[in-house]
Amino acid sequence: MHPPPLAAAMDFSQNSLFGYMEDLQELTIIERPVRRSLKTPEEIERLTVDEDLSDIERAVYLLSAGQDIQGTSVIANLPFLMRQNPAETLRRVLPKVREALHVAGVEMQLTAAVSFLTILQEESVSVHTYAHSFLQVILQHLEHRDTGVSNAWLETLLSVIDVLPKETLRHEILNPLVSKAQLSQTVQSRLVSCKILGKLTNKFDAHTIKREILPLVKSLCQDVEYEVRSCMCRQLETIAQGIGTELTKSVVLPELIELSRDEGNSVRLAAFETLVNLLDIFDTDDRSQTILPLVKSFCEKSFKADESILISLSFHLGKLCHGLYGIFTPDQHLRFLEFYKKLCTLGLQQENGHNENQIPPQILEQEKKYISVRKNCAYNFPAMIVFVDPKNFHMELYSTFFCLCHDPEVPVRYTIAICFYEVSKLLNSGVYLIHKELITLLQDESLEVLDALIDHLPEILELMSTGGESSVQENKLSSLPDLIPALTAAEQRAAASLKWRIHEKLLQKYACLPHIISSDQIYYRFLQRMFTIMMTNNVLPVQKAASRTLCIFLRYNRKQEQRHEVIQKLIEQLGQGKSYWNRLRFLDTCEFIIEIFSKSFFCKYFFLPAIELTHDPVANVRMKLCCLLPKVKSTLKIPADKHLLQQLEMCVRKLLCQEKDKDVLAIVKRTVLELDRMEMPVDAFQKKFYEKDLLDQEKEREELLLLEMEQLEKEKQQNDGRPMSDKTFEKKRRDTKTPTTLPKSIPVSAPGTSSGTPSTGKEIKKSKLIRSQSFNNQAFHAKYGNLDKCASKTSTAAAYTPVSGLAKTSMISLSDDSFRTRNASSAPSSFSSNTPLPGTSRGTGSSVDPKSSGSKDAQPRKATLKSRKSNP
Questions:
Q1: C-alpha to C-alpha distance for 139 and 98, rounded to whole angstroms
Q2: Exposure of 192 by Cβ count < 10 A (0-12 exposed, 13-18 middle, 19+ buried)?
C-alpha cells in the first residue's frame, strides 16, 4: 500500500477545521468530570493531619473526626498498631473502632473483618485478651444486612473458634446459638448457626455433642426454608467425622435419607454429595441396603431435574463407583456404566451448524452445563477404567474414550489430556489401544490441550514404546508410525504462537526422545530444528531449552560422524558466528555440555573455542564468558591438562591487562578471586572430589562405549557383507542406551584411557559386545532423570530477547541436506569423520596460540581445520 497524498493526509479546509473543533469540544466534555473530582482547598484542609501526632493519636483523631476513607485506612492499619503498641491500641483505638463500625459502610466492615483475622493469625495478643477485646465485636456483626459483610465476619469467627478454649466457646458462642437457631430468627441468622454448628462439633466431646449440638442439628435439618436445610445438610459431613461411626449411623444417616427425598433440588443435591463423601464411614450392609437404592433413584431422576444436578453427579460418579465397588450386581454394574456413557455424550446429539447469535440464551446456557458434565466425565475416566477392569477397556470404554478425545469443546479435550497419563498407566500392556488418540491430542488445534498433554509426555511415550500388544520390543516403533510427524507438527504450532512457555516446555520434554526413537530419526528430524530455534527464535528461555535438548541429543547420538558434524556446526555457526547473540548462545551450550558430558569431552572439543571468546569485540560476550570461567576450569585435571590451564591463565591475564569496559573488568576481578580459591583435581581419585570424579568417570565410560559399539557394528557389517536391517538396528540401538549408574560387576576404567582401538581376537570382540550390551541394558531412566533435574534452570521470566542487527536467516527445513550423512565419494573433507575438530585432547602438549585464536572484529573466526589449509 502507498501512503496517501499530502493534500489528502492534511486537509486544512474550513469543513475539516470545524470537524477538528468538534472533536476538541468532545475531549473537553470528557475531561470535565475529572476536573470536578479534584479536591478543593477546603476539602484538602479538612483531610490534613498534624504531622507531629503519634500513630496512636493520629488513629484516634481520624476515627473521631476524619472521613470514612480515613477511618477505613486506620482500621486497615490496625494490625501494625497492635504490633507496635498493643496496650495503647486496645485502650484508645479499639473503642473508637467499635463506635465507627456501628455506622460503617460495607468497605469499612470488610476491612475490619480482615484486620481482626490478621491480628489473630499474627498472635499479637494472647487468646484470652483477643476473646475479651474482639470476640464480641465479631459476634455483633455476624447478622449484617449485607451478605458479603456477614460472610466475612463469619469466616473470621470460624477461624477464632479454632483457638478459643472450650469454656469460652460454650458461654460466648454455643449458649447464644440455641436462641439464634430458632424459627423465630431470620434466615440469615439460621444459616450462620448451621455453619457455626459444623465448626463446633470438633471442639467438644461426644456426650456434649449428643446432648447440646445434635438437637439443634436435627431442628435445622427440618427447617421450613430449603436454604437452611441445604446448608445444614452440607455440615453433616463435618459433624459425622466428629461424632464417630455409631452416632453417624443412628443420627446422621436417617437425616440424610430424609433430605435425599426433599422437594428442593439443592437439598437433594447436598444430601447426595454428603452421602458420597461419607461412603468410607458406612459398612457394606449400609451401602448395599440403604445408600445404593438412594443413589440409584437419584441417578434415574437426574435427567428430569435441573442440569446442575447432572454436573454434580458427573463430578462425583468416579468416587461413587469406587466406594460402591464390590456390592453391584452385574445388572447394576452395567446400568451405571451405561449411565456414565450417556453422560459422556450429553449434548452432542443436539450439535448443529447454527450461529451462536441465532441460538436462544437459555439453550446456550444449557449447552454450557452439558460441556461441564462431559468435562467431569473426562475427569473421572481413570476411575471408570478401574470400575470396568482394564482388561475390558476395549470392549466397554474405548468408544467413550474416542468420543472424549474428539469432543468439539476444548475444556473436555483439555481434561482428558490431563488424564491421559493415568489412563496409560492403568492400561499397562493394553496401552497400544490408545496410540491413535495420543496422535490426535498431539495434533489438537488448541495449544491448551497440547500443554496439558506434554506435562507427562516422557512417561506416556515410554509406556507407548515399552508396552503394546506384543512383548517383542522390536515392534514398538512400527506401532507409532505417526509419532514423529505429530511431534514435529506440535512443536511448529507452539513456535508459531505467542505462548512461548508451552514451546519451552515442549522442547524440554523432547529430551526424552533418545529413549523412544532411534538416533538417526532424531538426527534427521529434530537436530536441525533445534539449531534453527537456537539461531532464529526471539525468546531466550526457548533458545536455552532448545540448546539443552540438542546437547542431550548429541550425548546419545551413536554415530561419530554425526557427532562431529553437530559439534562443528555448534562451533562455526554459534561460537564463531557473526551475531553476538549466537555467540552468547554458544556459551549457554558450553554450560550444558559441562553439565551433561564428561570433562574430557568438553576439554577435547569446546575448551579452546570457549576461551577464544575472551577476545570477542562485544562486552556482553566477554562478560558472560567470565561468569562461565570457574565452570570451565573445573573441567581440568592436573597434570594431564596443564597446557589447557596455561591457556586459561593467559586469557585471564590478558583480560586483566587489556580490558577497557569497566563492567567487564569488575567481573573479571571477581572471577580471578574465585579461580584462585578453586582447588584443582588431579588425575587420581581424591576424597574431596570422589563423588564428582566417579560421576564424571561414568559419563566418560559411557561415551567410550558408544564409540566401541559403533566400531563393533561396523566390523560386523563388513564381515557379514550386508547392511543391517531395521529390526536389527533397532535392537542394537536399544542395547546402546547408557545408564547413569554402573553395574557393580563392571570394572571402572580410568579417565583418559582409550577403548576405541579395534581388538584382534574374535573372543575379545564378542566379550566387548556382550559387556557393552549388558552395560547398556541398565535403566536409562535414571540418566534421563538426572539430566531433567536441571531443566528448571533454563526457565526464566517472560521476556522476549532482542534480535541481532543482522538480517535473520531463513528457516531451514527439517530435512536439511547439511545434516545428512555423507558418502565417502561425495562428502567434503571438512565433514569427514577423519577431520579433526577445533579443540584439544587430554595428554597432548600442543596448544593454540591465543593471539591467533580470535580477533576483535565482527567477522566470523574460522576454525583451524586441516582440510582448509590449502584454501586461499
A1: 12
A2: buried
C-alpha span between 761 and 746 (Å, rounded)? 21
Contacts of 538 (CB under 8 A, 6+ apart): 800, 801, 802, 803
Backbone dihedral angles phi then psi of residue 800, each to the nearest 5 degrees: -85, 140
State how far the Cα of 868 lies from the Cα of 862, in Å rounded to an integer.
10
pLDDT at residue number 225: 92
Q: What is the mean pLDDT of the segment spanning 17-38? A: 52
Give phi and psi for 848, each to the nearest 5.
Answer: -95, 135
Banded pLDDT at 799 (limits 50, 70, 90): very low
Helix ranges (H only) for 303-446 are: 307-323, 330-344, 361-379, 381-388, 393-396, 398-405, 410-418, 420-427, 435-442
Cα angle 35, 40, 46 (rounded to 5 degrees) comes to: 140
Cα dist from 607 to 281, 633, 656, 859, whole Å: 66, 9, 20, 21
**How far is the C-alpha of 364 from the C-alpha of 367, rounded, in Å?**
5
CA-to-CA distance for 268 and 274, rounded, in angstroms? Answer: 10
Grid cell of 200 as nine digits: 463446633
Distance of CA 848 to the CA centre of its chain: 46
- What's the pLDDT band for 256 if we cut at 50, 70, 90? very high
DSSP one-letter string for 495-557 = HHSS-HHHHHHHHHHGGGGGGTS-HHHHIIIIIHHHHHHHHH--BHHHHHHHHHHHHHHHHT-
Burial class (CB in 10 A: 0-12, 13-18, 19+), 850: middle
Say what the pLDDT of residue 823 is: 38
Q: CA separation (Å) from 7 to 10, 17, 21, 387?
A: 5, 14, 20, 77
Say what the pTM is: 0.73
Query: What DSSP designation does 579 have?
Result: S
Q: At 549, is the pLDDT very low, low, confident or very high (cuts 50, 70, 90)?
A: very high
Q: What is d(CA 57, CA 84) in angstroms, rounded to the nearest whole number?
A: 13
Core vs surface per residue 566-576: b (16+ CB within 10 A) or e: bbbbbbbbbbb
Closest listed residue to residue 553, CA positions, set 590, 512, 608 = 512
Q: What is the largest CA-CA distance in the chain?
A: 105
Query: pLDDT tens, 471-521?
Result: 444 444 455 678 999 999 999 999 999 899 999 999 999 999 999 988 899
Report d(CA 74, CA 823) in Å as an integer.
Answer: 82
Distance CA 605, CA 205 (A): 74
Q: Which helix (H) or strand (E) holds 560?
A: helix 560-569
Residue pair 373/343 in contact (Cβ under 8 Å)? The answer is yes
538 grid coordinates: 526471539
Position 148 scores a pLDDT of 92
Least confident residue range of 321-325, 400-404, 669-673, 830-834: 830-834
Question: How close are the terminal C-alpha atoms of the chain, in Å?
Answer: 47
Residue type, 209: I
User: How much of the chain, in percent, has pLDDT values that exceed 70?
Assistant: 73
| Distance of alpha carbon 174 from alpha carbon 170, whole angstroms | 5
CA distance 218 to 200: 15
d(CA 570, CA 583): 10
For the residues of 204-226, what is the DSSP string, one character each? S-HHHIIIIIHHHHHHHHT-SSH
Tell me what the pLDDT averaged over the chain comes to. Answer: 78
Return the pLDDT at 553. Answer: 95
Name the pLDDT band for 685 (thresholds 50, 70, 90): low
pLDDT at site 180: 86
* Whether 282 contacts 253, CB under 8 Å: yes
3-class SS of residue 114:
helix
